[in-house]
Amino acid sequence: MFAPSQSGASMLSGLIQALSPLIEQIVEEKLAVRLDSLTQQYTVTQPPNEWLTVKEAALFFDVVPQTIHRWSKKGTISRFKLEEKGTTYYSKAELNAALKQQVRPDGTRKHARRQFQKSAV
């Protein structure tokens, strides 16, 4: 069989040593660009005070948390989760828009349980 000469093996070794830093630099640059792209894609740019939890949204609407969950399932308001089983957040601007839609001409709200109970007493 053919066996490479000593000079051919040393030449190949020298070529690998010469190209190794260049390959590492190219891979690091490509990974950095990809990481920046993914970071921008999955980063929430809204400040934290613009998002409310389920409890905070329920207090905002003066309803129970189950109502908030029902509205999000129905599509009245949309929800945002950081993880699949993580905390659910709601946009404060969207909640304000939904609240304006629920106010009747006489100033009462369609789903305000506590207002109904106060007027019934």
Automatic annotation (TrEMBL):
Signal sequence range: none
Start and end residues of each Helix-turn-helix domain: 51-102
UniProt xrefs under InterPro entries: DNA-bd_dom_put_sf, HTH_17
Alphabetical list of Pfam families matching this protein: HTH_17
Region (Disordered), start-end ranges: 101-121
Basic residues composition bias: residue spans: 110-121
Protein name as annotated: Helix-turn-helix domain-containing protein
Annotated organism of origin: Hymenobacter cellulosilyticus
Taxonomic placement: Bacteria, Pseudomonadati, Bacteroidota, Cytophagia, Cytophagales
